[in-house]
Design a protein that fits this description.
The structure holds 2 protein chains of 2 kinds. In chain A, 48% of the residues lie in helices and 13% in strands. Chain A is of the alpha/beta class. In chain A, the strands form 2 sheets. In chain A, strands 2-1-3-4 form a 4-stranded parallel β-sheet, with helices on both faces. A 4-stranded parallel β-sheet of chain A has the order 6-5-7-8. In chain A, strand 7 (213-216), helix 11 (219-231) and strand 8 (238-240) form a beta-alpha-beta unit. By secondary structure, chain B is of the alpha/beta class. Chain B folds into 2 domains: 12-296, 3-Layer(aba) Sandwich (Rossmann fold); 419-470, no CATH class. Chain B is built from 23 helices and 10 strands. In chain B, a hairpin with a 5-residue loop joins strand 5 and strand 6 (212-216). Chain B is elongated and about 95 Å long. At the A-B interface, helix 1, helix 2, helix 3, helix 4 and helix 5 of A face helix 1, helix 15, helix 17, helix 18 and helix 20 of B.
Chain lengths: 261, 471
């Protein structure tokens, strides 16, 4: 599903994602700073909005196509597109191809080309830029939520590889790591009871091993899990993997300005 | 919490006892599955993909494989029937019984027979049809429905079963599992001997040899066949595999995926009726190939669901199934596979089951465990698209309309101004927002502080600073 031989390079475009654009600006900022730390020149196309996934998952493919066409128009060029979300990346790899199944040749080609440029950020660092270990220090026991839409991709293994190479990081094993957080976009409001029950169980499992923080490669899962936890008056410390990586660099005793692969 | 989706409501109202039983049994089967696959193989995932390819190839060439299987079966002495739908299949089975002057049938477990409601049909026509699989037997005593493809009574506990046994005259109340099993065994032994016809399903049919393959853990399929004159096999047309040697792969995957066993306790290969030099076994064998909507599925965008080998692994791993149980799906096939298959099998009654594909967070765990690699999330999405195009209210209930959102997201100026204006959300008490989706969210979750446009502001400054440095 993920194209072989995706475009690599250090001049990149950054997809903010609608969730980071509205709620999690610090994750978007950390992503850009991180990419610059590893020597990338980052462009953020101004006209970008959302990848179109909410409508796609809801079954409204007509609306999804409208948004996707906009995204295809916005991310022109031939640079890699870096996304701090396994879910939005999955949407480009999978959903974009599916909605244009009966589309024009030009649409199909545009969707394929975009997929060939798209990288989830952890996947890009390890498998795009070839960074095998991470510099710096971060002290913490981490439960790393898997984020379902990274299934079948290299995102989770890449995130684990980088985190495990950092001095002071301990990755905790927890029960039912394959299970979903219960978000699922509009599923969370159409199936509110099931969704909340799934999320509550997920929080139980993530926190049972007493982590210092919960890490994720997708803020959509975090939106749901932290929203539930807060309502249940058991908030937890949460960080996107890019925030941990950036913090590790800043904690390094000797801080090299740029990591070269 | 208020909900407009029936599966969500079913899960909400489910007793803690049933929920616990479904959850713990699902989890146990999932864990055993992983153990069995990893103990047996270095790269189980590649086997799953291979099995998916073989099944997909079979489907794409189904007419020729079906023809081959029918030819072999007939050459082996079996009589082959083709049933367009459940009604035809039921009539065929009754016809076979009538022709033989038989009124008593014993059945081994068959989901296809559930699909066509065979028991009820035979009983209405003066015949006895007894389930011999322990779980199905209990379901039948209770006039209940199976809630899982492989473990039909996962929703019941032994106290409930003991009560049923007592009510049905199978001894005084006793909820010891061994006693329950012994009592069923004694009762069923008599039924095996009384029966005139044995009916089984088929887990696989080899197109190469016509071999019917049956797996059970109780040995009830062989009991159902061996003491009878007539053996009827009721099987969906999609159950074919090209060659005998493919069975090695499929049998290994089926047992490991379903129950975490290396192989089921009993595996039978049946070539045809009793040969003249054989001492016993049914002298007459009928194979009823059931279509019941499958040809139509084969020709459309849901084709890959016909790869399914009915292992139940997608149910066991599914977080929605775990929370709601099999009965929530209101159909013979529950869980992710059922959510795809049931609306299709319903034919004209599709809209009645159009909500099923919405019962998923699209987490993809079902695809990850599927032994034939069915892209279940994609099929669920295709259903959602179909329901939306056909304006089926049952599917859209509870899902916020996204037309306006699509306009917003394809108009950058509007998007950016909303990002700045959205700040107002922080000051609005969510309880007062009369939007159902907002209500459904905020009853159990908070929303994070709104920070729309903050990143864009930072990035603008950051670039200015950068270009300043470069000069």
């Amino acid at each position: 599903m993920i194209p072989a031989n995706r475009i690599v390079g250090k001049q990149v475009q950054f997809m903010i994602t609608c969730l980071c654009d509205t709620f999690y600006d610090h994750v978007a900022q950390a992503s850009v700073e991180l990419l610059e730390q590893v020597g990338c020149l980052v462009d953020v196309p101004d006209g970008q909005t959302c990848c179109g996934q909410p409508a796609f998952n809801a079954g409204d493919w007509e609306s999804a196509r409208k948004v996707i066409r906009h995204t295809l128009r916005t991310f022109t060029g031939d640079q890699p597109i870096i996304i701090p979300s396994g879910s939005c990346a999955h949407m480009v790899f999978h959903g974009y191809q599916l909605v244009f199944e009966n589309g024009t040749d030009a649409e199909k080609e545009a969707a394929r080309t975009l997929a060939g440029r798209t990288w989830e950020i952890c996947d890009f660092l390890v498998n795009g830029l070839g960074i095998q270990t991470w510099h710096g220090r971060f002290d913490g026991k981490i439960s790393l939520h898997r984020s379902c839409h990274t299934r079948g991709s290299n995102t989770y293994s890449a995130a684990l590889q980088l985190l495990r190479s950092i001095d002071g990081v301990e990755i905790l094993e927890f029960d039912e790591s394959e299970q979903c957080c219960g978000f699922g976009g509009t599923f969370s409001v159409a199936y509110p009871n099931t969704s909340a029950a799934m999320g509550t169980l997920k929080i139980d499992k993530l926190t049972a091993v007493k982590p210092d923080l919960i890490g994720a490669v997708d803020m959509a899962c975090m939106l749901h899990l932290s929203g539930l936890a807060e309502k249940q008056k058991r908030p937890f410390r949460k960080m996107h993997v890019v925030e941990i990586l950036l913090q590790a660099l800043r904690n390094a005793p000797t801080n090299p300005p740029v990591i070269h692969s | 919490m208020k909900t407009s989706q029936p599966i969500d409501a079913f899960g909400r109202d489910l007793s803690q006892e049933v929920k616990e039983s479904v959850y713990s049994s699902s989890k146990a089967k999932y864990d055993k599955r992983i153990g069995a696959l990893n103990a047996g193989y270095i790269a189980p995932d590649s086997l799953r993909k291979l099995a998916g390819q073989i099944k997909q190839h079979t489907l794409e060439n189904l007419p020729s494989y079906l023809e081959s299987a029918i030819g072999k079966l007939e050459a082996n002495g079996a009589k082959v029937h083709y049933a367009k739908d459940g009604e035809e299949a039921n009539a065929t089975i009754l016809g076979i019984m009538n022709a033989a002057g038989a009124t008593k049938l014993i059945k081994s477990k068959s989901m296809v027979s559930e699909e066509i409601h065979l028991n009820a049909f035979l009983e209405n026509n003066g015949c006895e049809s007894v389930e011999s699989d322990l779980g199905e037997f209990i379901v039948q005593l209770d006039h209940d429905m199976p809630s899982h493809i492989v473990t039909p009574i996962v929703h019941k506990n032994r106290q409930q079963i003991a009560t049923t046994f007592e009510k049905m005259g199978l001894g005084d109340y006793n909820d010891d599992p061994t006693t329950i099993t012994r009592r069923a065994r004694t009762y069923l032994r008599k039924k095996y001997l009384e029966a005139e016809v044995g009916l089984t399903g088929a887990n696989f049919v080899s197109a190469e040899s016509g071999r019917i393959v049956l797996v059970t853990n109780e040995g009830n399929a062989r009991f159902s066949i061996c003491a009878n004159r007539i053996h009827i096999v009721l099987v969906g047309i999609e159950k074919l595999v090209p060659r005998d040697k493919d069975l090695a792969l499929f049998l290994n995957l089926l047992a490991r995926s379903a129950t975490g066993q290396q192989l089921t306790v009993y595996t039978q290969f049946i070539n045809g009726p009793k040969a003249p030099d054989q001492i016993d076994g049914p002298g007459e064998m009928h194979v009823v190939f059931l279509d019941n909507g499958r040809s139509e599925i084969l020709a459309g965008e849901f084709q890959s669901i016909l790869r399914c080998i009915r292992c139940g692994a997608c149910l066991n791993v599914c977080p929605v199934y775990r929370q709601t149980s099999g009965h929530a799906y209101r159909a013979v096939y529950p869980g992710p596979v059922g959510a795809v298959l049931s609306p299709l099998l319903a034919g004209k009654r599709y809209p009645e089951f159009a909500d099923l594909p919405k019962a998923s967070s699209l987490c993809g765990a079902c695809n990850e465990v599927c032994p034939v690699d069915i892209p279940l999330p994609e099929l669920l999405l295709r259903h959602r698209n179909k329901s939306k195009l056909e304006h089926i209210q049952k599917a859209s209930a509870g899902t916020p309309p996204l037309g306006g959102w699509a306009v917003l997201c394809s108009t950058p100026s509007m998007w950016k101004s909303t990002l700045t204006l959205g700040k107002v959300m922080d000051y609005v008490p969510m309880k007062l927002v009369p939007v159902p989706a907002v209500q459904a969210w905020t009853q159990t979750r908070t929303l994070p502080p709104f920070r729309g446009g903050k990143f864009r502001g930072w990035y603008k400054e950051h670039r200015k600073h950068d270009s300043g440095n470069n000069q």
